[in-house]
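Quiz preparation item.
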């Protein structure tokens, strides 16, 4: 497909603290510099959509849009949004954003999108993201098991993975304790999923100081946006 139609994908990563965008070419390489705005507070659907539209207007031309959303997404409709606002429950993000931008829009979970940019496509691959929340994604031979929500499952001491390892916990207990918890979480996930590889992304992955097992790799946060190209490969 050498014509210019559908060559440029605006990739959007909606996070609990920042909304980030950049434009990808047909092979998934970035064509623009990433731009970011603080996530509006309260993070209601229309405020976030306005932030995306503002960011989009600084990115030049694009033909279609991929969005990573921090909650469960089914057919473009957001079903949960623990770190944003309850107005997102049952919101047609793909439809409403498409009307605003005048382009086709596809939406998936943010950790799923991060994973699509990180995996190699062989064996059992797992992805976790460390940011405001705790994201998780699972792939078998490159095929996504959508909307895995490990973050809200019980981890230890009566708390979930997100309660123990999300940004609020990191700020509360500090780097050392958070790093020790992370090592326990990695062991627990290995035990449960027997993954071949685990990738760790998200804004707080830079705070990791522990020696990681050989099959665990840190991926840059921009991977969350680079995964956007895969939403249009069907
Ligand atoms: C949400 C997940 C999301 C993760 C990271 C969690 O609170 O439930 O869907 O992937 O945060 O943003």
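Solution:
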């Amino acid at each position: 497909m050498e014509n210019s139609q559908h060559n440029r994908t605006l990739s959007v990563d909606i996070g609990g603290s920042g909304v980030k965008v950049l434009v990808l070419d047909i092979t998934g390489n970035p064509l623009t510099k990433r731009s970011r705005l603080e996530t509006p507070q309260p993070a209601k659907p229309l405020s976030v959509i306005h932030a995306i539209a503002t960011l989009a207007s600084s990115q030049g031309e694009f033909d279609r849009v991929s969005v990573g959303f921090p909650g469960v997404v089914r057919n473009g409709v957001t079903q949960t949004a623990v770190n944003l606002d309850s107005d997102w429950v049952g919101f047609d993000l793909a439809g409403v954003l498409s009307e605003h931008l005048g382009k086709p829009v596809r939406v998936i979970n943010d950790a799923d999108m991060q994973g699509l940019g990180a995996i190699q496509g062989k064996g059992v691959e797992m992805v976790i993201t460390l940011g405001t929340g705790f994201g998780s994604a699972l792939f078998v031979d490159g095929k996504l098991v959508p909307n895995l929500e490990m973050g809200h499952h019980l981890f230890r001491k009566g708390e979930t993975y997100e309660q123990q390892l999300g940004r609020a916990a990191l700020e509360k207990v500090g780097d050392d304790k958070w790093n020790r918890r992370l090592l326990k979480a990695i062991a627990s996930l290995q035990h449960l999923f027997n993954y071949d590889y685990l990738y760790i992304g998200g804004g707080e992955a830079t705070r990791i100081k522990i020696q990681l097992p050989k099959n665990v790799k840190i991926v840059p946060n921009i991977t969350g946006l680079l995964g956007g190209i895969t939403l249009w490969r069907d």
